[in-house]
Amino acid sequence: MRLRSLILWDIRFQARYGFYFLYAVLTAIYVAVLSAVPEGGREKATAILIFSDPASMGLFFMGAIVLLEKSQRTPAALALSPVRAEEYIAAKVVSLSAISLAVAAVLAAAAGVGAGEHGIVKLHIVLPGTVMSSAVFTLLGIIIATRIGSLNQFVLWTVPVELVCFVPAILHLFRAAPAWLRYCPAAVCIDMVSGHAPSPTGVMTVMALTAVLFAAAKHCVLNMWAQMGGAKL
Amino acid sequence: MIHVNHLSFSYTKQPFISDMTFSVSPGEIFGFLGPSGAGKSTLQKVLTGMLASYQGSAMVNGVECRERTKDFYEDIGVDFEFSALYEKLTARENLRFFASLYEKKPCPIDELLETVGLERDGDKRVSQYSKGMKARLNFVRALLHDPALLCLDEPTNGLDPANSRMMKDMILAQKAKGKTILLTTHNMQDAAELCDRVAFIVGGRICALDSPHNLIMSQGAATVTYTWLENGEHSAACPLHRLSADGQLKRLISENRLQSIHSSEPTLNDIFMDITGRTLI
Asked: Both B35 and B172 in a single domain?
């Protein structure tokens, strides 16, 4: 019940801050850009676009969201309420994944990702891939944003994360990476986003990474709450 | 409601709280008074379960604070010194959001807004609120789930006299409803007016603990100061309880030679300085 409420209010905050309007505009621009890409390269371009924006928006937007919350000192109120860190994190992951999912669905459908000779867009692979990527990036965003105090610091901290997440994924997409890299979570995610069914090992790797990141995010949120409550730890 | 027994806490090798022992009864307003850095906020953090690595015992509502679960907060309301509200949301939306976090049925939001005079501003965004309005909204946010224990941190800090009066009346109204209230402040006037008992905290220790009246009386009663003319102006002072023994005063009264006479009671601030040797800054 409380988790449902947190998710709905997070969606409301995001709408109030213009996230939905921004992504409606961006989606229209992306569709226009993709339609201009020659058909041979459209599938890869769409996969890169989905992976680098709607799927990874959590990494960037968590910085803005958490810093905004810190500036309004609302984490102090949440720390002294019945809200659990797990609920706070899950609400952020679910609410941001909802936007990622909607944008990815439109882009994949518009570009015909994985349509093949039957013309059926493989949304049943693209959308779970988007959700898995979004969860990983949002958790990374929470881990970074809870530990920093300014947007500049946040931007600096996201650079190494982007390198580690994007470079292997792009190399894998263009088959320019060693074979073992296909088990790298970023490669598994971009594979799914481009409409390719993942191996069970690949999915397990992403699940394991998500569980580790969730535990790390919980630790970071509890630390942030304690510090917002004034405790020096 | 609260039982603290030999409580000690430190972030470093230096103790922040040393061997504190006290109890707070249900329905009591209990004040923590002390200068900045005295340890009163640290003590409040222990009692609200934010700091678990303390020695001794701190029981709130029958729960040892270091073992609290999140359900502990169903019966505690905390009003921070600063605003902790979502600025882009309206006052009504903020209260609806925070109310949704508790299992307990929330108090009616319109009634709460009315009690703090914000009923006409309920649909305004908090970013458009003045400091006094935010303070009042913050206060009712802490009351939403009708908690048995209220922790108030400098509730009148930075408020103008009218808003400060309103805030103090609201605190007294909560006491009348039977709530237990912990008041952390360095405002002696507020403490003397609101608290049933106060604890003077300096250097992490409780230096004195009693009702404001008893603390004032314990350091000597009021004095009477009078002046008269005799080759220039002279003044003298006499304790109120020994007034009849002051022959000089009697003589001056019988000769109608007094220029001025007034009584002065020590304030809680004077008592604090007498006991602790410190001022409240």
From this structure: yes
Q: What is the domain range of residue B241?
A: 221-265
Read off φ and ψ for residue A158, nearest 5 degrees.
-75, -20
Chain B closest-CA separation from residue A87 CA (Å): 11
In a domain, B7, yes or no: yes
**b (16+ CB within 10 A) / e for B136-155:** bbbbbbbbbbebbbbbbbbb
Pick A13's closest partner by Cβ from B76, B84, B86: B86
Q: Which helix (H) or strand (E) holds B23?
A: strand B17-24
A151 reaches B (C-beta below 8 A): no
Question: ipTM above 0.95?
Answer: no
Give the tens place of pLDDT for each residue, A61-111: 988 899 999 999 999 999 999 999 999 999 999 999 999 999 999 998 887
Q: How far is A12 from chain B (nearest CA, A)?
A: 9
Domain holding B45: CATH number?
A: 3.40.50.300
Q: Is there a domain that residue B84 lies in?
A: yes
pLDDT tens digits for range B196-218 = 999 988 888 888 899 988 888 77
pTM of the predicted protein model: 0.85
